[in-house]
Structure formats: C-alpha cells, structure tokens
Specification:
about 240 residues; alpha+beta; 9-stranded antiparallel beta sheet
C-alpha cells in the first residue's frame, strides 16, 4: 500500500525541486518523489479549478435568456451549489414564484423532483461586494447555514439585502442580459405573509396549484452552464 508522505514534504520546496533535479540527471524517481509530484499536480489542478468563473444561461419559457456570471471568490460554497443545481437540471421547468417589483425575484423550488439537497454552510463575506446591486444573485435562507436550492436575483440595489449571513452574492446577471429582468412577470407580487403571491409550501405539495391559481407565472425553461473561464471578470459587469 502506498503511504501518503509526511505533511512536511507537501509544502517543502526542497522536496519539489528534488523531483526535477533527479529526473534531469537521469536518476530513477523514488516512490516518495512520484507521490510528491502527483500531489503537486493535484494541487495545481485544484487551484486552477477554484479560480475559474463560469456563466450559466437560464431561459424563460417565453424564450428570453438571462446569463449569470458566477464569481467563486465571492461565495465559493454558494457558487459550487449553484453549479451543481444547474448541471443536475434542478432549475429546469421551475417557477419564478416570488417576483416583487424593485426588490427581487426568487426561484429554486422543484416540486416534480424527488431529489433532496441538504443545506450548505454560509460563505464568508470577506471577498463579496459590500452592497447588493441590481442583478446580483444570492441564495435565500431561513437562518444561519440554511441555504439549499432557493435563490434570488435583485431587481434593484436594495440596502436590506446582504444583511443576513446567508445572503452572500455568488454571481451577477451580465450587463447585456440585464434587461431581461424587466420582462419577468411581477403581477402576483410577494409571497405570504407579505403578499398574496404563491405560497412555497403549496407549490411543494400540490402539482396543480400554480397552474390553477397563478396561470401567468414565469418559469425557467432550462438553465445550463454556458462557459467557464480562468479569468475572474465578474467585476466587469458591475
């Protein structure tokens, strides 16, 4: 069985240089050297992966598309969960059930899927924007470390958004698709108890609830990952 080398060899520059020096002079690399090189390469791959940004395209059933540029540095855990949801098809054919003018549009409930997503921990706000701007995307929550699948996009710069520990933005609608936010149907307004819009608990329990009571509600037709990048250029859309 191959044993993992001591921790001191993982961060030692001398161990790394030793691998290449011995190869340069034609010596057979030892098992320890091979493991060190493997761990170095794994670390490099992980570092590049974590630095990548990606864009997700969400298309309304009416055919309008909105692109979300995700910045992993803002909220690594939130960005990873969003990517998981998109790649799993969780958001496809799901309602934008809370659409409040000059506030936000909320989504992420999938009543037709039996899959369950456990909550993730809250991200640090150390590297995220200090104030919410129009088009910023964040998970919704009900308390600390409660984020699961529900998220929202800010319709406007609202000072109250971002105050809760779970409201850390992980991305932003791109500048060239920001106008699509103005096309989202807001006729039903906020959810109870703040309004008479769709009740999330009834969306989960009754398949025909939205069709019967809120026939004009908007849906995502699909969301998919459009592109990845090693550049961290989300700020260009601010």
């Amino acid at each position: 069985m191959i044993r993992r080398p001591p921790r001191s060899t993982l961060s030692s520059s001398s161990a790394a240089s030793d691998v290449y020096k011995r190869q340069e002079y034609g010596e057979e690399p030892t098992e320890r050297m091979l493991i060190t090189r493997m761990l170095m390469l794994m670390g490099m791959v992980m570092e590049v992966t974590q630095a990548q940004a990606f864009t997700a395209r969400c298309t309304l059933a009416r055919g309008l598309s909105l692109d979300i540029r995700v910045n992993r540095k803002w909220a690594p855990l939130g960005a990873a969960r969003f990517e998981e949801l998109v790649r799993a098809g969780w958001l496809d054919r799901t309602p934008l059930y809370r659409a409040v003018p000059n506030f936000l549009v909320q989504f992420g409930l999938n009543a037709s899927s039996s899959q369950r997503w456990g909550p993730i921990s809250d991200d640090s706000k150390a590297h995220s924007p200090k104030h919410f701007a129009r088009g910023m995307v964040s998970f919704a929550g009900s308390g600390p470390n409660s984020r699961d699948t529900e998220m929202f996009i800010a319709f406007a710069a609202v000072s109250s958004l971002g105050q809760a520990p779970w409201e850390t933005p992980f991305g932003m609608v791109t500048r060239d698709t920001l106008h699509v936010l103005d096309q989202v149907n807001t006729e039903y307004g906020d959810m109870p108890p703040w309004g008479t819009g769709p009740n999330p608990s009834k969306i989960r329990s009754s398949p025909d609830y939205l069709a019967n009571s809120y026939p004009n509600i908007d849906y995502w037709q699909e969301c998919h990952v459009l592109a990845t990048s090693t550049s961290d250029d989300t700020a260009t859309d601010l």
